[in-house]
Amino acid sequence: MRTFTALAAAFTVFVTLQPADAMPICSWTKGSAGATGGVHDSLHVWLETAPDTFSVRSAVLFEDLVLSEGDVGSTFTATSASDPGFDGFVGEITDGDDGYVWLMHCGGIGGGGSATLESVVFASAGNPDLRGYSLTSIDLHLDAMTLTPRGNPPDRTGYDYTVTVTFHGDPVPEVIPEPASIALLGLGCLGLLRRRRH
Questions:
Q1: Which of 26, 42, 104, 160 could form a disulfide bond with 33, CB atoms 3.0-4.6 angstroms apart?
Q2: What is the tens place of the pLDDT at every residue in 141-154?
Q3: Peptide bond connecting 84 to the previous residue in cis, omega within 30 degrees of 0
């Protein structure tokens, strides 16, 4: 009975590593330049995920975000409560697969975007993606934006913009045995071995 009690104690005493407040995990800076049809003073900018460069998007973040030159220096935050695409987007970038993150934009007529491998976006995190993290928010900061009418008369808009996306969260807590629990487990095993010999 003593052996069983020691084993039970060893398996029930654990320490859970608790993370501090959510912190920035990594940041990704991306820009785009070109022209879009029509004359516009703003661009619709959003993020997408996809398993490769030719598949339909899997998840969308900041779907309703419209940016103008006056927004330079501003930060926009998406959370599970504020953005309906947040949970799906986070699911895609924490699944352990090296898919793609797209920076997309549209100025009314036409649009475009560019894809970056998750292993490049999240290189500083040490994984193909953010697997092993629990994300709480994603920030999009507009670093720079220039919108210039083109043509005579103007019939399109030249754009040049850069954003920095910052991913906030914590490592998923690990449950590890406390040293005393490991010692109790060892004593319990020794007790079992001793009992079998007698």
A1: 160
A2: 999 999 999 988 89
A3: no
